[in-house]
Amino acid sequence: LDDLLGEGVSGRRVLVRADLNVPFDKNNPGVISDDGRARAVLPTLVALRDAGARVIVVSHLGRPKGAPDPKYTLAPVAARLGELLGAPVAFAADTVGDDAAAKVEALQDGQVLLLENLRFNAGETSKDDAERAAFAAQLASFADYYVDDAFGAVHRKHASVYDVPAVLPHYAGGLVLREVEVLKKVTESPEQPYVVVLGGSKVSDKLAVIKALLPKVDKLLVGGGMCFTFLKAQGHEVGKSLLEEDMVATCRDLLSEAQGRIVLPVDVVAATEFSADAGHVTVDASEIPADRLGLDIGPKSVALFAQAVGSAKTVFWNGPMGVFELAPFAAGTRGVAEAITKIDGFSVVGGGDSAAAVRTLGLDESAFGHISTGGGASLEYLEGKTLPGIEALEK
Ligand code: 3PG
């Protein structure tokens, strides 16, 4: 971005790919529950605006099926961006249609426009190279330059991430650069001991990263919904807890390969149903009643995990330890997160739900070394995969 600003962008149109895929409050449609991703891209937007560029922002939101779907409109995000920028952000009701074209045309120097959700267009996520390229050409026709500051989406081979930079002069935004720098350090030369904390609901989503990390880590602490498949693999009954039957054998293999380096919860908070009002008890992880489901790790597990992260020089954390959105099941995530803030070393929070947890639980963001905006993207980086968005920028 500094290179682009150095060239002078006054009066030029700059297409900024941002990741404005923010979570919304489940009880209040249209109300953003965590605007961290919008804040993260502000420095780039402000720098371009202050340099007199005409800024066209594009993003996805959720996973609509390639056609307009009001549930996934970016309109509330345009309003929030305007508040954060202290100036109105224009909003186009389509991405490359007549409204977008008219609003791009009307854009003045230093103004910001957000186009409607990229994924309302089948070309954005198409597996067909020609279809993606055709959509990318429409987007590119709006601008003179392209800036990618959507770290959370660099692992997607999508038109706005991979194909637009093939046809426009392209630059990395400050957020993308900072994220890559931190994750590179953690991947290539983590200071030892290196402890990884993984949570979230599914083992299958994290399998590749577990396999890639196992040889590198001193300890891999597993909480969240995915711990029950591991507990089952250890021979415990898990009641009505989340379970991926088809992953039990894989978990058994991982546990044996890890030779004690995978650490599982020793107690869990088990409830009668998935609800904040459900009756709940703390039980040993080996004694989950048949009619209950585990919704958080228990206090003994928090102490065990805190001790493990306490001796680490590098900690990477991805995924909540329990259903932190429901108050009775937030203590596990809070306890482990607080332990991470106290380490005498470098900590990275790997995006998505864990970053949202840090903010919604009111934890001190500055106490973490780095809070990534990328969930899947940071995991794929740690796996050592080539990320299409980074590859396209490097070309
Ligand atoms: C994310 O939330 O990880 C990014 O915004 C990417 O979203 P996606 O998984 O729907 O591509």
Automatic annotation (TrEMBL):
Residues annotated for substrate binding in this entry: 19-21, 37, 60-63, 119, 156
Q: Which residues bind ATP?
A: 206, 294, 325, 351-354
The residues forming the signal peptide are: none
PROSITE patterns xref list: PGLYCERATE_KINASE
Check the record and name the Pfam families matching this protein: PGK (PF00162)
Q: What class of enzyme is it?
A: transferase
Main location (coarse class): cytoplasm
Q: Which UniProt keywords apply?
A: ATP-binding, Cytoplasm, Glycolysis, Kinase, Nucleotide-binding, Transferase
Annotated TM spans: none
Name the chemical reaction catalysed here: (2R)-3-phosphoglycerate + ATP = (2R)-3-phospho-glyceroyl phosphate + ADP
- Stated EC number for the protein is 2.7.2.3
**Localized where?**
Cytoplasm
Question: Which pathway does UniProt place it in?
Answer: Carbohydrate degradation; glycolysis; pyruvate from D-glyceraldehyde 3-phosphate: step 2/5
Per its UniProt record, what HAMAP family does this chain match? Phosphoglyc_kinase
Under the subunit heading, UniProt states: Monomer.
Q: Which family does it belong to?
A: Belongs to the phosphoglycerate kinase family.
How is this protein named in the record? Phosphoglycerate kinase
Task: State the species of origin.
Answer: Paractinoplanes deccanensis
Higher taxonomy: Bacteria, Bacillati, Actinomycetota, Actinomycetes, Micromonosporales
Q: Name the gene.
A: pgk
